[in-house]
Amino acid sequence: MNQKAVDYAADSAVMQTYGRAEIGFLRGEGCWLESDSGEKYLDCASGIAVNTLGHSHPHLVAALTEQAGKLWHTSNLYRIPGQEIVAKMLASLSGLDQVFFCNSGAEATEAAVKIARRAAYEKGEPERMTILCATGAFHGRTLGMLAATDRPVFRTGFGPMPAGFDHVSFGNLNALRAALGPLVAAVMVESVQGEGGAKQVPDGYLAGVREAADEFGALVIADEVQAGIGRTGRLFSYEDTGIKPDIVALAKGLAGGFPIGAVIASKAVGAAMTPGTHGSTFGGNPLAMAAAKAVLEILGEDGFLADVRERAAYLDTALHQLQTQFPAMIEALSGRGFLRGIRLHDSVDLPALVNRLRDDHLLTVPAADNTLRLLPPLTIHRDEIDLAITKLVTALTAMAPRDDQ
Ligand SMILES: *Cc1c(COP(=O)(O)O)cnc(C)c1O
Questions:
Q1: CA 147, CA 126: separation in Å to the nearest integer?
Q2: Atom 10 of ligand 1 has which residue's CA nearest to it?
Q3: Predicted pLDDT at 2
Q4: Residue 400 — φ and ψ, nearest 5°?
Q5: pLDDT band at 11 (very low <50, low <70, confident <90, very high)
Q6: Closest ligand 1 atom, CA of 193?
Q7: How close is the Cα of 74 to the center of ligand 1, in Å?
Q8: Which helix (H) or strand (E) holds 223?
């Protein structure tokens, strides 16, 4: 083993907001990360659904380096050419009209909520302020977005929560219809709850949300921060359902690792946002736009997403075999595409499994409901999927109760 380049001091000056593993990475290529002690790790975490095209993708590296040599930042006081291009791309890909750029997922969902409320206000319905969210939802860590989750793990000790958010039972249309009314500005929905355990809404749910929202005069906000940008095999995870949201929040994977957030809105809704109503110093700066444009170019290449769907189906088959092999450990599989969850029985220690896999050089991400999340780069190869499964078999075998061995 090589000497570590950096020593992680016990008295680290980094605030302990994460239970960090004692490992750092210095470089990456494709689905592989190289640690500071020179060891290679298969990355099935993608920086939590961020590295859409893996690490050091040549098209992204070229786009960002070229932009870095020209111009980094000017501000939204001026036109930003890259923004005009990426906004047009996102508008045409979504069938919506206007884009606001920011720097993260929480900023995108927060802006989505502001836009929905302002649209109601401009329509002469200022009392329409409530945002309906699902139980188990995660929309980010700002105070507003803490109010949008119902999970104590994120909220405890940060009160008072901003008013104007209600929660309805995940995937339950009757509960949603009962909560809709003249005070509801929007329904905010993750079609696959990422942090919630790669949990997919039931078939027909999104169409039902769209219909009920229309009936009660509310907007639909799709939080595509984790499930969007090809992760489910479609550019937007709701595409298969045929619905069109009024507002879409994007972030994580949009610029392949460069910080970014974006909100796409219909013209009718976006028109409520006039100069001075919202802003962001860094939002949509030339570097982020160069990276986002490069990601969207690759995702838009002929056959790219079809190929993602084929390899995701290959992973799906392998996961079902794994479930058959370990029935006493795996309770269910969740998610789709390359946003997958392996829900473990309560008897299985999820953090221990994540650690064991990492010790065996496979990176995964824990999620709610005792679920192991797999979020590989969309470019993962079949032999890398095979290797990830082999490592899962090894770890589960080592941790299995007797009747699974
Ligand atoms: C990660 C996430 C967010 C928050 O994104 P940040 O960039 O961490 O602020 C919001 N919504 C969903 C669905 C997410 O997965």
A1: 20
A2: 139
A3: 52
A4: -70, 145
A5: confident
A6: 13
A7: 26
A8: strand 219-223
CATH of domain 3-56+303-404: 3.90.1150.10
**Residues 280-333: pLDDT tens digits?**
999 999 999 999 999 999 999 999 999 999 999 999 999 999 999 999 999 999
Would you say the CB of residue 191 lies under 6 angstroms from ligand 1?
no
How many angstroms does the Cα of residue 253 sit away from the middle of ligand 1?
A: 10
Distances (CA, A) of 43 to 33, 207, 228, 317, 385: 7, 34, 19, 20, 11
- Closest C-alpha among 146, 210, 221, 212 to residue 179: 212
- Model-level pTM? 0.97
Q: Quick check: is 40 catalytic?
A: no
Indicate which residue's Cα is closest to atom 15 of ligand 1: 226
Instruction: Work out the number of other CB atoms within 10 angstroms of the CB of residue 275.
Output: 6
Classify the C-alpha dihedral 46-51-53-57 as positive or negative.
negative
DSSP state, 239? G
Lowest mean pLDDT among 12-26, 240-254, 349-363: 12-26
Distance between CA atoms of 50 and 55, rounded to whole angstroms? 10
Q: Is 252 a catalytic residue?
A: yes
Q: Which atom of ligand 1 sits closest to the CA of residue 226?
A: 15
315 touches ligand 1 (CB under 6 Å): no
CB of 140 closer than 8 Å to CB of 106:
yes
Ligand 1 binding pocket includes 102 (Cβ within 6 Å):
no
Distance from residue 18's CA to the centre of ligand 1 (Å)? 15
Which fold would CATH assign to domain 71-299? Aspartate Aminotransferase; domain 2 (3.40.640)
Same fold, 3-56+303-404 and 71-299: no
Residue 291, token pair as written in the block: 């990276």
Cβ of 103 less than 6 Å from ligand 1: no
Annotated catalytic residue within 43, 223, 246, 369: 223
pLDDT band of residue 400 (cuts 50, 70, 90) is confident
Per residue in 197-254, pLDDT (tens digit) is 999 999 999 999 999 999 999 999 999 999 999 999 999 999 999 999 999 999 999 9
Rounded to the nearest angstrom, the distance between the alpha carbon of 139 and the centre of ligand 1 is 5
Mean pLDDT estimate for the chain: 96
Structure tokens at 362: 């496979």
Q: Which ligand 1 atom sits nearest the alpha carbon of residue 106?
A: 9
What are the sequence ranges of the domains in the chain? 3-56+303-404, 71-299
Report the nearest-CA residue for atom 5 of ligand 1. 105
236 belongs to the catalytic site: no
